[in-house]
Every structure is written in C-alpha cells, then in structure tokens.
Amino acid sequence: MKAKRLTELALLSTIALTIFMIEQKTPNPFPIPGVKLGLANIVTVYALYRYRAKEVFLLVITRVILGAVFGGNLMALLYSAAGSLLCLGGMIPLHRLIPERILWASSVLGAVLHNIGQITVAVLVMRNAGMLMYFPFLLVSGCCAGAFTGLCAQLLLHRNPYMAGKACSQSDT
Amino acid sequence: MRPSTGKTVEILQDGNVLYTFDLSRTEDQVIEVFYQNRSNTVQIQDGKICVQAAECPDQTCVHMGYLSDSGLPIVCLPNRLVIQFSNAELDGIAN
C-alpha cells in the first residue's frame, strides 16, 4: 500500500472515529437498545465506493476497535464487530451491482445486514430469544439511518472532485 | 395500561433468572443487580417495574422507562440484563 493511500485511509479512520465518538456522547433520543444513527458509516459507505475491499475492511475494523476502546464500552465491540463484518461481507460484493446514483439503496441494504448481525449476537450473548422482539424496530430504524447515511455519502462523493478524481486515476493503474 | 393482575416478571442476567416477581402482589422495592462491578438499580413501584439507574455507558435501559404491556423487554446490553414478563405468563395470555 502506498504511503499516500495509507495516509488517506488513516485520515478517513480518524474522521469516522471522531464522528463515532461525538455520536456516542450525544444522548440517544430513541430508547431502544442498538438503535442509533451510525453517522460514522457515512465514511464507510464513501470508502466502499472509492477504495478497495481490503482497504475498506481495514478502515472499518480500525474504527470499530478504536471506537470500543475510546468509548470505554468493550461489550459494544461484540455487537458492532458482528454487525460491521456481516454488513461488509454483504456490501463488498453488492456495491458492484448497485450504481453510485442509487448509493443510498446499497447503504440501506448494509444497514439491514448490520442489524441482522447485531441481533444475532444479542440473542447469543444475552441467551434470550426475547431480544428478537426488537428486531422489527431495529430494521425500521436501520433502514432510515441507512438511507440517511447513504445520501450523505452520495453527496460527499459528488462534491469531492479531488478525492474522486484521484481515486479514479489510481484504480486505473 | 391494563389492570395489573397476575403479571409475573423475571429479571435475567446472562440468560439466568435472578428474580421472579408477581408485580400485582410485590411490594414496592429497589433491587441492585451487579454485573462485573457495575450495577443496575431496578425499581418496583405500584405494580410497575423499571430500571432506575444503571452504571453503563449508554443508559438505554433507564430511558426505556417502565416495562410495558407490549411485551418488549427492558434490556441493558452492556450489563447483560433483561427484564421481561415470564414466558409462562405470556403463554397464559396466549391461551
């Protein structure tokens, strides 16, 4: 990996981590476990369409681990790791099929996959199938949050000619 | 709210039942449940149950308020705590 690319990824990780931390410190208006906006995923979706799969993977793992460490909530690591990994596992192949112009749709799919991963871990960790009652709430909120973060990423992709142009020229090489 | 008759509620941690209450008959009380030195303060008052305070980063369980008739459990993910109507009771309603 070129130093320049590495620096860009480090920068994106930092941005994602900052967004993640600020969101975590903001009181959640929805008192449902596991529901949040997930603004840090704007960076993930952006990266998904501008960087290679391996790089996006590294970016997300870095953010998830550091986020759990800095946020002082290591329990959340399990949930976010499971959600993120399932989400990435689905999104890396899927984003090739979904054009950038309907990027929000791919973000919604990612959110749904994330929710499936989350609830699976929740049921396993809590050893309580009652958790499944939250799944519909998670799905609805996940779709809204996914559409929102997707739209934000879409705007970013269109408004950042510097990054976009450079990434294109790099992918040609 | 339906009249609170014969509502059995259980407090679970890590999937194990720690307490079982019949809310209609239990007197008001406050229970501390510990998980790895972090506590959840569960309050039972007037036949309703809620988490009054929690030593966890997200405080979601506190914000959820009283356990509602919808059957949706109160959950504290960091402290692995679940407060729900017991399954036997749910089956009873279904029958």
Looking at CATH, the homologous superfamily of chain B is N-utilization substance G protein NusG, insert domain
On the 0 to 100 scale, the average pLDDT of chain A is 85
- The low-confidence parts of chain B are 1-5, 88-95
- Which secondary-structure class do the elements of chain A indicate? mainly alpha
Structural class computed from helices and strand pairing of chain B: mainly beta
Estimated share of beta-strand residues of chain A: under 5%
Overall mean confidence score, pLDDT of chain B: 80
Element order of chain B: H for helix, E for strand: EEEEEHEEH
| Low-confidence parts of chain A | 168-173
- What is the helical fraction of chain B, as a range of percent? 10-25%
Oligomer, anyone?
Answer: heterodimer
- Rg of chain A (C-alpha, Å): 16 Å
Adjacency order of strands in the biggest sheet of chain B: 2-1-7-6
Distance between the termini of chain B: 20 Å
Task: Give the number of helices of chain B.
Answer: 2
Helix content of chain A: over 70%
Rg of chain B, nearest Å: 13 Å
Q: How many β strands of chain B by DSSP? A: 7
- Outline the biggest β-sheet of chain A: none
Total beta strands of chain A: 0
Provide a compact summary of the structure.
The complex is a heterodimer of chains A (173) and B (95). Chain A is built from seven helices and no strands.
What does this structure look like?
The complex is a heterodimer of chains A (173) and B (95). Chain A is mainly α and 173 residues long. Chain A has one domain (3-25, 37-172). Helices cover 78% and strands 0% of the residues of chain A. The longest helix of chain A has 25 residues, at 135-159. The radius of gyration of chain A is 16 Å and the shape is globular. Chain B is mainly β and 95 residues long. Chain B has helices at 60-63, 87-94, and strands at 8-13, 16-22, 29-35, 38-45, 48-54, 74-76, 81-85. Chain B has a single domain, classed as mini-chromosome maintenance (MCM) complex, domain 2 (Sandwich), CATH 2.60.320.10. Chain A binds chain B through residues 24, 28, 31-34, 71-73, 75-76, 79, 122, 125-128, 130-131, 133-134, and chain B through 12, 14-15, 57-58, 60-61, 63-65, 71-73, 75-78, 80, 82, 84.
